[in-house]
User: Fold these one by one.
Assistant:
Number 1:
Amino acid sequence: MIKRKNILKFFSSIFLMLPIVIFSQQESSFNMYMFNHQSFNSGYAGSKNYSSFTFLSRSQWVGFEGAPVTHSFAYNGSRNNKNLGFSITGLVDRIGPLESSQFAADLAYQLKLNDRKHYLGLGLKLSASLFDFNSDILSPQQQQDYTLYTNDIPESLEPNIGFGFYYHTPRFYFGYSIPRMIQDEKYFLIRHNYFITGGLISLSNSIELKPSLLLKFTSRSPISYDFSTLLYFNKSIWFGPQLKNLVSISNDVIQSGAGIGLIAGIHISNSFSVGYVFSNSIGIRNFTDTYSHEFLLRYEFNPRAFGVLRSPRIF
């Protein structure tokens, strides 16, 4: 297990150089991104003919005080008779004394491309972010160390705007988005680019394969990838492995490694689904024994049926 002094050293290095480090960090992400496209791609709004609510909670470095904890919710409204969709998303990300909160509203037009349910979603995201630094939970060795208390943390909502497009069929999708276009170094905001793709492949009458790929990149860090392959049984149960790359920066030394995980879930009813991920990291010194938990709750409101079977529900 990681020694407690290594965690404290890690947090200290972050907070002593807060304006620089946070600005260069990646945005919060989830292992079960394939169930929560709405959080980063506004073109997903209205992509279904029913509404849904998704809640995700991720806990990293379990067992250590101040470890990262992230909660997210997304309401995706159904498209109306004019093919317009509206959605809202929210996120709270907490690591040590730093907490960031984000709220966004999405509006998308789902352009129908043909009669085979092929659509192109063109979306606009309006968002606001709020940061809070709680220095009361820190216990510096030097009591008069004012470095921890002089960081210029914004105390007001910072508005932003983004866009996304999302092409989808009943069994395939891909999309590209920039959730927040406006960059501001003072408020640690940097532009992130997202590319997603995935689909459903029938292996038998009762088994389907669901591959998913997420690419995330910025101007100041290498491309981050996240790949998973889920087996989907009887349109009710899914599980499979996940692989993602990880980057750690310590004392100006960049370490690269990988995150491995196992995703599992079940549709408890026609409307309610739950999911779970257990993940770990390999290849990064001092952080190879850490593990993370992630939970998914999803509820679909009055989904319509197509014949005997419903439309695929895991996009």
Note: Confidence is low (pLDDT under 50) at residues 1-25, 306-311.
Number 2:
Amino acid sequence: MSPLIKCIFASWHRRVTLSWQVTLLWLMASPLLAQITNQVPNPELRGNQGVVASDMASSVTGSVPSGWRGFAVNGADIVLSSIELPAGTLFAGSPAVTAVRLETIDFGPGGSDSGLDHTSSEFSLFADRSYSGAVYLRSANADNSAQQLSVSMPIFDQDGDFTGLQPGSFNANVGSNWTRFSGPAFTGIDDFSSLIAFRLSNDGGDNAVLITLPEVAGPVLANRLPNPDLAGTDGFVQGNVSGDVPDDWRAFAIDGASLDINAVPLAASAVFPGSPASNAVDVSVVTGAGFTGFDHEPTQVALTPTGYLFRPRLYMRSSNNNGSAQTVVVNTPVFDSNGFTGRTPGIFSANVDNQWRLYVGPTFSELAGTTLNMAIAVVEDGGEDSVQIAFPTLLGVDVILADGFE
């Protein structure tokens, strides 16, 4: 964690934490997110905030979808690019999504490795659940020739170490039409985790493929955050804050700082193709020098079941009038019966431009009896220091755990 982030959040929680009663408003999930069963982060492959992993002998060029990783080691080289697919492209009634074009330029010598995965956003496994992977694929070779690739699903233990098990993995021989490929089902292991990864096979030609809508069926997921549509004006205010704060959320500005909060109505498809009509919140630092933020600390959410991997995500765009980028820190402070624990496991920072983009934080698990508060801080980096936020999400297992999770 950078000294800047440590300074912002250590001081913030010492000074600003309130002793509000914790409530379970995570039952009020947005209809958009309330019945998700796909365990894969960002299966629509939106955004460009993913990470790159390579060494001095290798390269990964292009952009990586948010929550994903492009990797190449030991002499391998790959190129990644995004292609927007209109509704109906994959099958009748399919949504508008993004496809990733993965091309391996150089497979490298023996021991090399390259591909696309989401290693920083693994998903939890449960012993009484079955899991299976699927994905839509199409050859991206210039001559439309078939392309072979492997789809792997490695399993990791409680420490994040690879167990050597990959029971859901499969191979695909991809043709020139969009086709859904799926792998074998396997039973989960409590407190273990998995991911889905794509690697091309060196079968000649361009060695390129298009990938979209990867899916791993699993337990029903829900958005744990209160009022994710950011509706209403009955939120909490602390300090010098002007404007209306959404229900169940809080805005604060103390120690000489001031903050301006404004609701921004969103039309359907305003944030991404097919996005529902909703609301965004515009957060603007008017006067700095103190401490400011936007969170839901008065309505924290319970981190159950213990050991489950939670995943923070939200859409953001800079609202600086000159179109300049804005530095933002998204924090996930954890609390227990004694207050702030000092742990911020899902924290990440972002340089947000003036286009709506998806931002996905790292997955994390927590201890029994802990609660969480997603918090957004606009960092003073010069200029206007303004950002808009929409569809904040903390994905977790559906809170109606009638089948043995609790």
Note: The domain at 37-218 is CATH 2.60.120.260 (Jelly Rolls).
Number 3:
Amino acid sequence: MATVADIISLPSIYNARLVAPCEKAESRTVINVGILDIGPEFNGYSAYMPGEFILTNLGFTNGDELESDRALLAMIDRGVAGIGVKTVYRPHIGEAVKKKSSESGVPVYLYEGRYHEAVVFDALKLIHEDQQEEAREDTLRALIGPRSSKEVSAALTSISGVVGGQLICLALSLPEDFSQARIMLSDIRNRIAMSRTDVEKCKYIAQRFDGYALVLICAPNRDGINAKLEYEAKELAKQLHALFMSPCGVGTAFDASDFCLVLKTAIFAANYAEIKRQPLAFWSEIGADKFALIANSDSLYQREAKTWLRRIEAGDADGELIKTLRIFLSYQGSISQTAYALRQHPNTIRYRLKKLKALLNMEDESDRFLATVLSIALLPLSVSGS
């Protein structure tokens, strides 16, 4: 959401400064911008709403100090997000206004700048862009859970015209400051526009999501495209980290219908990079550390995992399935390495994986899919025994 800090940082506002201390002034949410050019006697300022940032030069008071204070005090009582007083007429700000500003948490600023109309234009543009960003974020959030490729493609098309067959995602932590986050996301989009290679007709989406900047890379379904997507994502992640010095995680490529996995693997990798204080993390290279990370950070998957674990335990009379699964996931889904570690023939491992898929109603899924989804959702619970 746009905040007071974003409004007073607009290019049409110069040298904004608080008239009195006001706790958390810049973090207040702004939903609209209004112009104050009349006294409160007309309607008690009932047309001005909480959440609005109010611009005024107090010119309507004709320099009357009591009238200036009365207007500002009445506006503070409306619970607006903040008030910006342009200094063009050398406005008076009395002690009563300063005191009430500090007590109420409604900040009052003095500033120089362009005409009110120019500030309003800049502010409403910012607010509108943020609302669009939130709508796109909601569209992505709605894709979490079982979705068909057609549904995912339609959603991605609605966001940016992209039609996804295979997807991969990378995630960077955004600054907590909204203004800085917005600038960073804009810079990412510009960087992508300048540097992308369009391997196999790749298309890109850069989008804010839950404190991250996500970059989705989409490509048509083709043989070997996943490896190319992962290479493309890693190269882009290196560029973006060098530009922003923010921990960056790269997930795993899947079909659009597996959007939730595409998203989760990237976000978990970004979390891992931040926790380990390393610049980059690639889901495919994290190894067994990912399990502890996931177990502590994703209650949604843990709930789903309990159901899956019960199914496996019900069909695992001798405990071989859980044992095989632990080794299989620790080796990133490698059948040959799992077989070697368990001193079993690879076909024995394949048989056990086939049985696992049947228990989980995943008969049609690949071993790679099984390894990824279970490493996110299941292994932490099976290891802890919960």
Note: Residues 132 and 159 are 10 Å apart (CA to CA).
Number 4:
Amino acid sequence: MKRLFVLLLVLLAAIGCNQPEEIVTHRIPKSRSNLDKFDRRPMSSARRDAAPTVPTRMVVGLVERSDATWFFKIQGPVDQVNLAEPVWREFFGSLRFNDDAQPEWDLPTGWSEGRSSSMRFATLNLTSTTPPLEMSISSLGPNQNLLDNVNRWRGQLALDEIKKDQLKLVEIDFDGGSMVLFDEVGLASTAAGGPMMGAMGGPPDVPDQPIAASIKFESIEGWVAGPTSSIVKARLLKTEGDKKAQITIVEMPAAVNKWGENVMRWAGEIGITKQSGPDLVLRTSKVKVDGIDAQRIRLIEDENEQATIALMAVRGQSAWFFKLTGNKSAVEAGEPEFDKFLTTFKFSDEN
């Protein structure tokens, strides 16, 4: 019996060794865990900041005219921008504005013209450098705040903001005018949007801003405010399932914006390619926005998944664009709301 008892103890011990180990948890105060030191910003920001930075030189020629403010921007590794300096200075000297208030220039040897877009008047490729650099040419409305632009560019180079009495820019003459030159060296990311991307797409980059004080309108039920900028004065978004639509209000210089050219661009953006530009423009109707004459076009086709309804109104030296765009079904469903929204829109004299 004694032997049987001992054997039983041995068997019980063996069974106990095969049982899973109990997991014990301990609650550690955050101040002792070091978790409070971790960056809680969105992943996109953390990844962007984690990208390596390199010494970067940014040069922006800014031309202020009564009809628009023009930006000629180049940036990249310091040695490459330095190498190209004699040529881009020669380019600035060749600058002139034609009777349509658009810039013209003599294209330097080794440069080529690249893509343009609704946000960029032209792109010039400096193929003589390694890596190649870009100069972006873009415009905004007149009377831009020079100090704000300078501090924005300084921020892109990881430089501190300056005050108005510290603003010191060089002035360069060209045929029929002059420009001020922002020229600084700092650190910029090599990730997308960094110095390797040259001058980047379109006008100077700007953070999200509140809806512009220069406009007023009534909100639309079911639509939420989206990101804005110095160009996009207001943005409203609506999502139903996988269908999305947005309303945007954009201000651009009137001198460089023609109705027909914009119609053709909008058509191309949503895949309408079977109709010629003149045929599309014939679909224009006349409407009013806050008592101002405007042109309206409805770009909705059965065979296209995307659609756009757009208006353009010229007020002073600015061209104002009102667009409803997105999935075709979402645009069609949102059209009555868009039309009602436009009846509530008012220009304001506030700045």
Note: Residues 50-197 form one domain.
